[in-house]
Specification:
Radius of gyration: 22 Å
Number of strands: 11
Distance between the termini: 58 Å
Order of helices and strands: EHEHEHEHEHEHEHEHHEHEEHH
Strand content: 15-25%
Strand order of the largest sheet: 3-2-1-4-5-10-11
Bound molecules: 6-O-phosphono-beta-D-fructofuranose
Shape: elongated
Structural class: alpha/beta
Largest sheet: 7 strands, mixed
Number of helices: 12
């Protein structure tokens, strides 16, 4: 291959810049040119590309976000969008593509692979719900951001003897909520994978009060139903029964920004370099994930077949720590 391209797609996260940097510098060492595709698959359809070199990826290792931009592209889901993308890749003499993103983005990569184009994926999603990798790029930084926020909220919660509902990201996945609950010490965790009724939450908050705790931290995944706002209203109605006054904090997109942690920088650099080697040497149509600390290929088909299951043993671990 003489010229490859790289794109970041879907929800961003910390570590995308170090990953692009690793792709570019590994390719350049092998005398392969790299084009950066701007705004994910939308840029591929619009042929919005920029040539990258060792210097243009300088100074981005510590920066959050993605300097080539990302997008969720509804056009690329259509056959017509995919054909347009393929046409642009061929027109620009691009021999192979690296796609950095989560399940949706890797499904897009699979579509290109099935059309015969050489593609390699790299898992990057704060939700950590991609198969074929122990961890995805961005997860560690987001968890640390959540911990920082929860630790601070705990201070004020204890000062005022309050219960706090803290909503974290995870539209379909309770990974961040559960890990944050273990690492920050939450009294209650609410995730889509485990059914919990509002009555059980009332009971849990009351328990924390009766045990003499000075606060009650409830971490809620965005995807838990009926949702943090409904629960907030419900707990306010039950104020007399639960002992604590309640406040709600929705962390939102603060969780996606910020400088990548050392873990994310090293993970992203490793996977970026491994993906280039994979693209140059084949086989293609795989995702380069990190399995047991070793960059390892998994067929894209398998990586996106279903959402990675949460290890519910960790739910038991969290529960033990709430005693
Ligand atoms: O897919 C990653 C994710 O961060 C989810 O956890 C969250 O629900 C979603 O993206 C938010 O997406 P957007 O930035 O498009 O609102």
């Amino acid at each position: 291959m003489k010229r490859i391209a790289v794109l970041t797609s879907g929800g961003d996260g910390a570590g995308l810049n170090p990953c692009i940097r690793a792709v570019v510098r590994t390719a350049m060492e092998k005398s392969v040119e790299v084009m950066g595709i701007r705004w994910g698959y939308s840029g591929l359809i619009d042929s919005d590309m920029v040539e990258l070199n060792a210097r243009s990826v300088g100074g981005i290792l510590n920066k959050g976000g993605t300097f080539i931009g990302s997008a969720r592209s509804p056009e690329f889901v259509t056959k017509q969008g995919q054909r347009e993308a393929l046409r642009n890749l061929n027109r620009m003499n691009i021999d192979g593509l690296i796609v950095i993103g989560g399940n949706g983005s890797l499904t897009g990569a699979l579509a290109l692979h099935e059309m015969g184009f050489p593609v390699v994926g790299i898992p990057a999603t704060i939700d950590n719900d991609v198969n074929g990798t122990d961890i995805s790029i961005g997860v560690d930084t987001t968890l640390n951001t959540i911990l920082d926020a929860v630790d601070k909220i705990k201070d004020t919660a204890s000062s005022h003897q309050r219960a706090f509902l803290i909503e974290v990201m995870g539209r379909d996945s309770g990974y961040l909520a559960l890990m944050a609950s273990i690492a920050a010490g939450a009294e209650i965790v609410l995730i889509p994978e485990v059914e919990t009724s509002m009555e059980e939450v009332v009971e849990g908050v009351d328990n924390a009060y009766v045990k003499g705790k000075s606060h009650c931290i409830i971490i809620i995944a965005e995807g838990w139903q009926p949702g943090a706002r409904s629960l907030n209203d419900y707990l306010k109605e039950k104020r007399e029964e639960i002992g604590f006054d309640v406040r709600l904090t929705v962390l939102g997109h603060v969780q996606r920004g910020g400088s990548p942690t050392s873990y994310d920088r090293i993970l992203a650099t490793n996977l970026g370099a491994a993906a280039v080697r994979q693209l140059l040497e084949g086989p293609h149509g795989v995702m380069t994930g990190m399995i047991k600390n070793t960059p390892s290929p998994t067929p894209l088909e398998k990586a996106v077949a279903f959402q990675k299951k949460l290890n519910l043993d960790l739910y038991g671990l969290w529960k033990t720590m709430t005693l």
